[in-house]
Structure formats: structure tokens, C-alpha cells
Amino acid sequence: MASQTDVSPITNALAQRFTATRRLSLDLVATLSDADVSAQSMPDASPAKWHLAHTTWFFETFVLRDHMPGYRLFDDRYAYLFNSYYETEGPRHARPQRGLLTRPSLDDIRIWRAHVDIAVQTALPDLPPAALTLVELGIQHEQQHQELLLTDIKHLFAQNPLGPAVWQNEIASEVAQFSAMKWIEGNAGIAAVGHGGDGFAFDCEGPRHDSLLAPHALASRPVSNGEWQQFIADGGYHTPSLWLSDGWAWVQAEGIDAPAYWDGDRHFTLSGWQAIDPAAPVTHISFFEADAFASWAGARLPTEFEWEAAAAGLDPAAGQQLDAAGPVQPAATDDDADLQQMFGSVWEWTGSAYRPYPGFRAAPGAVGEYNGKFMSGQFVLRGGSCATPRGHLRASYRNFFYPHQRWQFTGVRLAKDL
Known about the structure:
Strand content: 5-15%
Structural class: alpha+beta
Helix content: 25-40%
Mean pLDDT: 94
Order of helices and strands: HHHHHHEEEEHHEEEHHEEEEE
Strand order of the largest sheet: 10-9-8-11
Largest sheet: 4 strands, mixed
């Protein structure tokens, strides 16, 4: 076994990031009870306890089981309970029934997590490069689940008539006035898009390739709550000509007349019910709503490559992102840059379908199921949100959801043709 002095700087940095990521997940549930972390509010969401367990299953399965000689699974039953969608790994508990898993308890999951954490840290100095790559993927995977944990627990608590708060402190806005929306001319012509270089990226972000961008402009900031209130007042949710056919059918069937969590001039947050800040970016809107608003505003949604070309020179670690456990909520900014809040605050819907890039190939084995098999019927979002762990984002990052989904921190930035 290698000594601490034999550990390479790269492995040591990976170990530190592993520890910090695993700690943050536990911090996010520190105020929650066993009942809070076990309940499931809808099939799209998962219990907070399940997120803690599934991310642990990922490390135990793909790193320890497959690359640490002699490792024995902590509990053979957990593979069935906490596999998500990896068909290669065999049968699993049905996703809509995750809220029925009252056992194992939260304390049981914490004990399992500690066991796996020690095993990974012990194994790290001797892991082959392929396994270290999986540790990195596991860290990135857990960061995704940290955001999902926050949005899923928010959705759960919003169903409670008591309006409970995950964190009691009030969410404060950074500024109390609108920043004027400006139009910023975008790059036109051939642009190289997709991930390139040595840093981490998910498989769906490549290969890097050229895309032709027509003359266009992007809004300097995301659409605000106040502007969305104008859309509502002007009958936006009751004007069928603004909506895609599927969107109008969804609005009618679901009785949608405002973003998720809105009730008049207040909205539900991780600190309970709060007044809506008109200057803050609107959030919890679907692709259908974003597209209808853009039509109402005489604009359109940006393509994902227009967005990426504009963000390529910006700092992906800037903006409002998750740094520690707390009641995250998009806030207004006093930034006077041409393009504001490109990273963090709210995921921004694009008009681009989530499809593979030219030359895309899924990775071999079970991890190849991570992204590629979902490239159907979904739309791309860019930029991250206030619930995305800082350091997780880059300009090429592609998130994706179905057009009706809106329980994530999803917003919109307008675009127009020139």
C-alpha cells in the first residue's frame, strides 16, 4: 500500500474533492428528519435519502467492486434498492416507489456512506487510471444529485399545507431594482462548440465540432419575475396563439397559470413562503412556458450553440452557485457586464433538442448508459443554477429535461434574429 508521501498531487487533490463533495451531501440533509428524507412527492423526484444512497452505490459499484481486489459489498440488497437506471447492472426498485423505502433508515445510510468513503480513500493511492476516472465521474455525478436533492426536497415541502422551511433564515435579494435588459450581438459564422481539452466533461458534451451561427442577439440577462408578472397580466396563459400545440394542451390539462410555486405575490422557497422579488430571475418554468413568453415578447429561445459561443469566454465559476448548505434561490444582480448571470442563478432553456453531436459514441459498459440513452424528446438547458455546486459547470455543459418539467431552477434568456 502506498504511503501518504507517495500519493501524487493529482490523486491528493481528487481525494480532497471527494471528501468535500461527500460532506456537502450530508450537510444538505442536516436539518431534515428521517421522515423528511424518506418521502417522495412525485415520480420525477426522489427522496433525499435515496440520493444519499444512490451516490454511495455508484462509488461502491463502479470503483470499489470493480477495482479494489477483495472488496465485499456492504449489503448485497442495496444494489437492487439504489440502482437508478443502469440496465447493465440488473433489476432495480421501481422509481415511482422509492418513497416506500422507509428502511434502511437515514442513520443506516450514513453508516454505509462512511464505510464506502473510508474504502475509497484507502484505495485511491493504488487505483489504476481507469478507476481514478470513475472517481472523478462519481464526484461529478454526486454534484448533480446535490442539486436534485435540493429541488426534490423543495417540491416535497411545497406539498405540505404548513409551508415548512428547510432553513429558517429568510432569503434576501441582492438588489431591489431592475437592471435594464439590453440586446447583445452574438457571434455569427462558424463556431467551434462542444468540449475540447483535458478537463472533465460528460460524454454528451462532445465531440467538439463546428456549427454555423446565423446573425443573432442575446438578452443581457435572464427574464425577471416582474416581466413574467406582466406576461400573466397580459393574459399570456390564456392566449393560445402564443403556445406550441403540446404546450397549450399541457396548460389546459394541468390548469397552469403561473410558474411553479407561485401564489399571487408570494412563492414557495427552501425558507418557506416568501414575497416574490420582481427583479430576480423567474424560475421553475417549463420549456413550454419559456417558448410562449418568448413569442409574447417578440423574441425566441436561443440555440444551445448561440448560448455556448457567448459563454465561452466567461468564468463558469462566477455567479450565484451552491457553495454551502442553505436556502438557495435566484437573486437579482447589480452586475453591469454585457452578459449577466450566464452561469448560476437559473438553468436557461434553449430551443435545441437534446440529441447527440456528430461522431458521438457512448462509453462502453454500464457508465455508457449515463447520458446517451436519454437523447430523445428532451430539450437542452445551459448555464447552471443557484443550486449547482460551484466548480461543476463549463460552457459546454448540457443539461436536459422534458418540455413540461419545471421543478428544477429553470428560467429563460431571450434571443432574436438580426
